[in-house]
Fold this protein.
Amino acid sequence: MEKVNLARKYSLFDEYWSPKIIGELNGQVVKIAKLKGEFLWHHHEAEDEFFMVIQGQMVIKLPDQDVSLEAGEFFIVPRGVEHKPVAEEEAHVLMFEPESTLNTGNVQSERTVENPKTI
Amino acid sequence: MEKVNLARKYSLFDEYWSPKIIGELNGQVVKIAKLKGEFLWHHHEAEDEFFMVIQGQMVIKLPDQDVSLEAGEFFIVPRGVEHKPVAEEEAHVLMFEPESTLNTGNVQSERTVENPKTI
């Protein structure tokens, strides 16, 4: 049982769009990722997805709006809703989601990370 | 579907040890609380509990260690483990936990909040 320091965890990797698991509880995982550029449109059939910005800024594009998030802000993408994360500059985000959630949701692509590493 | 700004949510209440719900997803809730002083020893029979410090400092006392958390750090208290949150000065924390989690766990006291408000 050890505490987790977010800044230290972010310092352990450089890749963008490659979620890492940093905590597990109640069948859910806490993940972090570094974002830069545009991800792909996708949705999650059965999972709501929580995005909180820890550093930088991101935009979650939705079919009918763009949600801009800064550090200290979060947004929950409801299951089934198409979304596309975008970050003009490097952003550090924290996600909270079921263990089963795949980063690209319903879309299989070269950006899909099947088994995110625990760091 | 609206984004949530943590600082704004904390500005909406003053009470200590009175968790508020600020998000719901996958049967889990995102809660925030302001802490100051000592809480009571308790445990949660079937729920792991995530505490992240957003502002200030807190200590999670466990039977065999004290876990000190600053802003940007979190700790997951495993189910069944006795713990006692303490904050010398006001601290702002964020919790992730199942909807069913009661703030005082197995202990019924005047500090028990049966139905936390959504703000």
